[in-house]
Design brief:
By secondary structure, the protein is mainly β. Helix content is 13%, strand content 33%. The protein is built from 4 helices and 23 strands. β21 and β22 form a beta hairpin. The longest helix has 13 residues. The chain starts with 25 loop residues before the first strand and ends with a helix.
Length: 333
């Protein structure tokens, strides 16, 4: 019989690379600004650490392929048996994966001064990695008199539970004042605040809340993939005719006016007007001698922004009815 075939070559494979370490988290920091921050880049930035690079894979071993010769067949005719197969390197090793990015959680910015940036005014961004670091439950409180300005005013990376409360002015010089990337987040626009630019919701559910004379010079965009983007109207001193107009608002895309301000919204699934309060300067049952006066006062705010401002502040800040009427007289005059 013919001889056995040659042996196959061995295979040697290097080990997989190690997983990179996770990036550092940025959590529970508080920044309070009462002065002026100016920046060529970002004004105030919370940046999660990037995940560490994965280790290199081990070097593959080497083997010299060889072919075994077949044995010589016995008998009067010399014929070689079949040759062996060439040795090969089988399988493959992998580079190590990058570590997870660091998260940005529970940080707060309180601003009553000025944050003026060429980049983003206030930035929250998780670290890069095999899994991006999440941005969770961070808050920006822009107090009365405070101003935040940047190409984008305030930007939140992928995450959930973030919020902005604006009683001052937020400006997006590139067209976007506030941007959420994902999750369920909140933006509140206090009375007489100014938001100059669009407010962009992320892929989750947003809640946008408006108070009297809050100026939003841009669109309130829900953008959510779910069905819970909400516009909440907390207007006070509304006239019956104004309430009727608000009741006619429809979800989806639309525009409306209230008390000298125009609002635009897109991709809003719910409009909540349950907190709108009717104008009632004289109380629920005004005395007969001032009944006609209180009816007049209830309608005056709709005439000019200044009257609206004066009457609202007196009505809300002077609880005693007689004191309010006495204070009102020189203001109206």
């Amino acid at each position: 019989d013919g001889g056995d075939g040659g042996n196959n070559g061995d295979s040697f494979v290097g080990g997989d690379g190690g997983l990179g370490g996770a990036g550092g988290a940025v959590a529970r920091n508080a920044v309070t600004n009462q002065g002026t921050i100016t920046a060529n880049g970002d004004g105030v930035a919370f940046l999660g650490g990037d995940g560490g690079a994965g280790g290199n894979k081990g070097q593959d071993g080497t083997v010299t392929p060889f072919r075994g010769s077949g044995g010589t067949r016995g008998g009067s005719t010399a014929t070689n048996g079949s040759d062996g197969e060439l040795g090969t390197l089988q399988g493959s090793s992998a580079e190590g994966a990058m570590g997870d990015g660091g998260g940005v959680d529970l940080n707060t910015v309180t601003n009553s001064g000025f944050i003026i940036a060429d980049g983003t005014g206030v930035l929250f961004r998780g670290g890069a990695g095999t899994r991006m670091g999440e941005v969770i439950e961070n808050t920006v409180l822009n107090l009365k008199g405070g101003e935040i300005s940047g190409q984008t005013g305030i930007w939140f990376g992928e995450g959930n539970g973030n919020q902005v409360d604006n009683a001052g002015r937020i400006t997006g010089t590139g067209g976007t004042a506030i941007a959420f990337s994902s999750g369920s987040n909140r933006a509140t626009f206090q009375a007489r605040s100014q938001t100059m630019g669009d407010v962009q919701g992320g892929s989750g559910d947003e809640t946008f809340t408006l108070y009297n004379n809050a100026k939003v010079d841009g669109v309130l965009a829900g953008n959510g993939e779910d069905a819970r983007d909400q516009l909440v109207l907390n207007f006070s001193r509304a006239l019956p005719s104004e309430i009727a107009q608000l009741q006619a608002l429809q979800p989806g895309d639309g525009t409306f006016e209230f008390r000298f301000e125009e609002y635009r919204y897109t991709s809003i699934e719910e409009i909540d007007i349950s907190n709108v309060m009717v104008s009632n300067f004289g109380g629920a049952t005004p005395p007969p001698q001032i009944e006609n006066l209180t009816k007049t006062l209830n309608n005056l705010p709709a005439l000019t922004p200044d009257l609206d401002l004066v009457l609202t502040e007196i009505d809300e800040n002077v609880p005693n009815q007689n004191d309010a009427l006495q204070q009102l007289t020189p203001e109206v005059h």
